[in-house]
Each structure stands twice: as C-alpha cells, then as structure tokens.
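pls ignore typos typing on phone
0PR + seq
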Amino acid sequence: MYSFPEEGKAVKEILEEIYAMRKGDPSTEEGTILGTMITTPHDLAIKVMEVYAASTLSDPYIFENAYKIEREVISMISDLLGGSDIVGSFTSGGSEANMLGAYMLRKISGKKYVIAPKTAHFSFIKAENLGIIRLKFAEVDEKLRVVPESVERLIDDDTAGIIGVAVNTDAGTVDPIEELAEIAQQYDLHIYVDAALGGLLLPFMKILGRKIPRFDFSLERVVGIGVDPHKFGLVPPPAGMFLFREWLSDKIAFEAPYYIGGKQFTLTSTRPAWPPIAFWAVINALGKRGFVRLTEKCLRVTSYARKRIEEEGFEVPIEPETIIVNIRVKNPRKVAMDLKRKHGISIGFSQRLSSLRLVVMPHVNEEAIERLLTSLKKVLDERE
Ligand code: 0PR
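k done
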C-alpha cells in the first residue's frame, strides 16, 4: 500500500530515481526484446511528443493545425493502401481499431455475427466480450491463413461481415483477402482488414518485388483497415489508425455533444495530438525509400534468423513470409519464461504452433539472433 506523499521532492532526486528504475528494464537497443512489434522510435517522433505534449485531437476546432496534419497522414496512408475515398482517426492502437472495425461491420449490416479467422488477434474477442459483436471462427490452413470455403460455410442471414488479417500475430502470414472479397461480393457483405503490422510493411515489400496478395482498399469490399504506426511506423505507443470509406462516416460516428466538431470516430474521447504529428515527421524524414530500406533490412535479418535457427537443429514450422519466425519447442511458455528469467531475453510464443515467436523489428539484428540461439540452447540443455 502506497500513500500519496505529503510534500513534493526535488526534481533532481525524482529524476535520479526514474533513471535508476529505467536501468532495470530492457531497451530495444540491447537486442533482448524479440517478441513484440514495438521498436526503437525515430528521434523525431520523440521530439514531437515533447513539442505537442499538451495538445489534443478531441475537437478539431481547438488545435486546428494538429488536426490538419492528422487528415494529411490519413490521406497519405490511404493512398499507400490503394484508397481515394478514405477518412479515419488515430487510435490507441490496433485493438481499438479492431473494435471499431467490428462495430463498423455491425452498423453497416444491422447484424451481429462477424466471421473471423480463428487465429485473429484477441482484441476481436474483447469486442465480443464488450457486446459489440458476436464471433464465428473460420478455419485456417497450415500457414494459419483463413480458408475461404470455411468462411463461406459460416455465412447465414445473421452475418454482419468478414474480418481478414494482413500479417497475423502468430505466423506473420497474410489471409487471402482477395478471395474473401469475392465471397463478400457474392453475399453482399463487407470486410474489415486488421493490417496492424502489415499495413506499413506489405506495401514496401511489394516495392521490393515480393509477391504480395491484395489486401487493401483496392478491393472494393474492403471498407475498413486498421494500421499501427506504433509497430512498423517507428512511433512510440500509443499510435494506431482506423481507416474507413467516407460513405460510412454518418453510420459510425459517435456524438460529442460539447465539442464544436460534434462527432468522433474513436472509443477514446480525449486523444493526444502528438501521434499523427510524430508519424508525419517520420514519414517525411524517411520517405518511401527510407521505409523500403528498413523493410529490406528486416527481411534480410529474418532470412538470417531462419537459416541460423535451422542450422542449430531447430524446426521452423512455417516458412516466414514477412518478419515473424517461429522456432518449434516443447512447452513454449515455459521456455519463454526461462529465457526471460535466466537470460533477460523476451520473446513471444505461440501455443497453437508450439513455438517461440521471434518478430524481426528494425532493432533486431544478427547479433541479437546469435545471442538468442546461444541462450535457447542453454535453457533447453538445462531442462533435459
Ligand atoms: N492486430 C494484430 C495482427 C496484432 O499483432 C496486434 C498486436 C494487434 C492487432 C493489437 O494491437 P495493439 O497491441 O496495438 O492494440 N500485436 C502485438 C505484438 O506482436 C501483440 C503482442 C505483444 C504479442 C507483446 C506478443 C507480445 O509479447 O507486438
């Protein structure tokens, strides 16, 4: 039990305490954070956080310049994702965007049952628990991509719409969204795509000449997409985006009665202004070329990781399509815990694949992969 201090302390003393505390937690630069989609932010993004610390986007008529930048970023990312009639808002991340996407499908159709791959992110289950939608789970193939026939079999009179995932959390693979779009067309349904990671990765992989299935607004039935600048956009969390076709605005707006703007499209009411501006700064600093280079580097390290993991005698259960590599182990949760406790390495895991899950974000390099493999072998040796 802590009590609220009677008196204030000197700033210097407080800062010292914070720095000491910080030392005990890992940094992305140390190469020990290997299982999340968060990475080292761009310096400019951190600068913007400070400059725009007290500004909000709750009402577009307060910080009008900030709001204008949010519109500009939304337009740029919509363009990147093949859309011209797109609007949207920054969110607290992919989970909020997914809840809004689920809500959108319900509002378009007036129905409640949404079909999602059974590997979809747990935020859709949160949406169900909160009463926004009901879920029906479709089967996935050996690469964890949704099986279109399974989606089609689940469609009935109560179906509100379909969710597709462009770069799923477990395997980093992409659902066949184009085939889902054909089914949606046939049954007059709409699609929301969770592109939390893929939205800022797949377009650059395409520029690099990789074969990327269509997943974006170039498919007419895709009416909403979630994309996270706090994943591959080098912006610190929380920074997500919920993008949707303009004709949906009136259907999914929430009333904001005491703001001049009068309408919002997000679950949170007070939104920070710095995320879109930080992202705008990063986009302008890197340009497409910078993001392509970053993507290329991550793909190179991913190939290196895959090769080295196999050379060390481990199985990679799914050929990596993007920047996620799985390493088959028994009791992955326990192994992940041992890696953290004994070697200070955090890595994700997948119960479904019985694997550790490595996400090769920009801060993950060859050296970090080697350290992981050395530690993993030690952990496994000790357990035998
Ligand atoms: N959609 C997909 C496909 C995701 O992978 C995630 C999160 C979300 C939505 C939700 O985004 P927010 O967390 O911004 O709401 N992916 C996280 C990640 O890989 C989940 C995570 C976090 C997994 C920590 C493992 C872990 O150790 O970073």
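The chain has two domains: 15-42+287-383, 44-283. Residues 35-38, 93-95, 98, 121, 123, 165, 168-169, 194, 196-197, 228, 240, 348, 359 surround 0PR (CB under 6 Å). more later
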